[in-house]
């Protein structure tokens, strides 16, 4: 719900009141400019928390961009933007910061989407072999396999692909595979000689189904 959080920095007890007001006013103006740009922005002007505490607070909430603005930044007409996805800090000129922050959010979106897509593709496997099915499952993949579509068969798949190894580390995923979806676009047609992925099933597979383990 918040895309950018603005955190004023460098406010100390010895700071002149006029300098303090000037800094907060600049933060508020930046907040207004970004909202006018259509961004969801929040300025954190609470004076009972340190900037470091605020950084952690908003990072835990998942805010993509944190803007840090202090007295030195004000004099140099700049600000510092921190990306949550990479931790990278960028120094931006104040006069162009509004557009640059909007562009930065788009870049973060593309970067995270590309990474998620790469992870999805690299962890999606296809097999017709039950032993390989279980092996791929243990390697944290999701698996496309021929499936008859029968509920009782799915229950057997879930039961027989579960791990009950006593040597598993505590908290390690051990549940069996369950069906996630039947893709609208099938990777390939079911062939006459294909069998349902569960070795004990004698029913003809109807479609490729995506299976995965719950975590």
Automatic annotation (TrEMBL):
Cite the entry's keywords alphabetically. Protein biosynthesis
Residue ranges annotated for the Proline-tRNA ligase class II C-terminal domain, each copy included: 130-215
Among SUPFAM superfamilies, the record links this protein to: C-terminal domain of ProRS (SSF64586), Class II aaRS ABD-related (SSF52954)
Report whether Protein biosynthesis shows up as a keyword of the record: yes
One matching Pfam family is: HGTP_anticodon
Where, if anywhere, are coiled coils annotated? none
Protein's name according to its UniProt entry:
proline--tRNA ligase
Natural source organism: Timema podura
